[in-house]
Amino acid sequence: MPLRLLFYINEILREHIKNLNNEKKKNKKGFNIPAVIPIVLYNATKKWNAPIYFKDIVKSNELFGENIINFKYELFDINHKYTKEELIKNRNITSAIFLLDQKVEPLEFLDRLKTIALEFNKLTNREKEILKHWLRNTVDETIRENVVKILEANKEGVENMVANNAFMIEEMKQKVKKETEKDARKQERIEIVKNAIKLGMNDEDISKLTGLNVEEISKIRTKN
To answer: pTM (2 decimals)?
Structure first.
């Protein structure tokens, strides 16, 4: 990561210099560059373990003292550095996004969205639009518009919409669970078919044993 950040910093400064007018380029005595502050926003569940200082990726850096390039980047580790309580206490646009960007179960996500809709009263209209834009580009499309509407609703509407979406999410979870169990059972039967084929059983007997039709068994036999 430090090396990638160095490349980004170089590109930003290169673009800045390219866009300077000729007069400023000639004025070498008064020439300066803007500050570039490297920041990393990290929202994965695995803990961040990359070096924070650039010099730490330079081989034998201790031999060169201050004669090598070095910088430190700011790390915002959303899932490990900030608690739910701390983020709710801040009640600003950044904490709202961090609160929703942490890795949580769908029902917990809805509960947090409800908290933001009801308690983050100091968000400006522009900040609310930024948050809605972020949600449209982040959450699953099946609930995308619903979560945006929750932010736009009054208190009673927020309560009702969160309850309705929670019910929908539970239904989706149950459906996925059933499909997963169904796929697992079918995979078990396929493994039984493969073993039965190795034992020399014919397709009709395997069909009686597993409940799969002869055509499916024939396809499995061909693949093996």
So the answer is: 0.60
Residues facing 40 on adjacent strands: 75
The two three-digit tokens of residue 58, written as one number = 């330079």
* 123 in Cβ contact with 96 (< 8 Å): yes
Place of tokens 């084929």: 197
Check residue 193 and report its DSSP letter: H
The pLDDT of residue 53? 93
Q: Report the distance separating Cα 78 and Cα 97, nearest Å.
A: 10
Could you report the per-residue pLDDT of 19-75, keeping only the tens digit for each? 887 666 656 667 788 899 999 988 888 889 899 999 999 999 989 888 999 999 999
**For 50, what's the count of Cα atoms within 13 Å in the CB-facing half-sphere?**
16
CA dist., res. 136 & res. 197, Å (int):
51
The residue among 66, 73, 69 whose CA lies nearest residue 51 is 73
pLDDT value at residue 88: 92
- How big is the chain by its Cα radius of gyration, in Å? 28
Burial class (CB in 10 A: 0-12, 13-18, 19+), 67: exposed
> Mean per-residue pLDDT for 149-156?
80
C-alpha closest to that of 115 among 77, 104, 126: 104
